Amino acid sequence: MAQDRKQIPLLDEFVLRLVNANVRTEGAIAGFLGLPSDMVTDTIADHFHKDLLTYGPSDSPAVPRRLKLTARGEQQERELSSITPVRVNEPLVFDQLLWRVSSFDRRMIIPRRQAQEQNMLLLPAAQRRLVEMSDLTAAAINAQLREGGLTDREVLQIKQITESKAPRVLPAKLLVYADADRTDIQLGVVIDGELSPDHELALLSHGGAKALGIQVERPPPNGPRSIRTSNARVSPWPRSPRNAQKRPRTSSLQ
Question: What is the pLDDT at residue 161?
Answer without folding.
Answer: 86
